[in-house]
Amino acid sequence: MYIIIIGGGRVGYYLGKALLDEGHEILIIEKNAAFCNIITEEMGSVCICGDGCEAATLEEVGTGRADMLVAVTGDDEDNLVACQVAKYKFKVPRTIARIRNPQNEHIFKTLGIDVTVSATNIILEVIEKEVPTHPLTHLLTLSDKDMEIVEVRIPPKAVTIGKSIKDLSIPAGSKLALIIPKDHNPHLPTPRTILREGDQIVVLTTPETEKNLRTALTGI
Amino acid sequence: MEFNKILVPITGTKVDEEAMRLACRLTKKEKGKIWSVYVVTIKRSLPLDAEIASDIQKAEEVLDHIEMIAEEEGCEIETDILQAREAGPSIIDEAVERGIDVILMGVSYKKRFGQFSLGDVAPYVLKNSVCPVILYHQ
Amino acid sequence: MKVLIMGCGRVGAQLAGLLDAESYKVTVLDISASSFRRLEPTFGGTALVGNGIDEEMLRRAGIEETDIFVALTQGDNRNVMAAQIAKHIFKVPRVICRIYDPLRQELYDTLGLEAFSPTTIFAQLVKEKIES
Question: Domain check: are A98 and A199 in the same one?
Answer without folding.
Answer: no
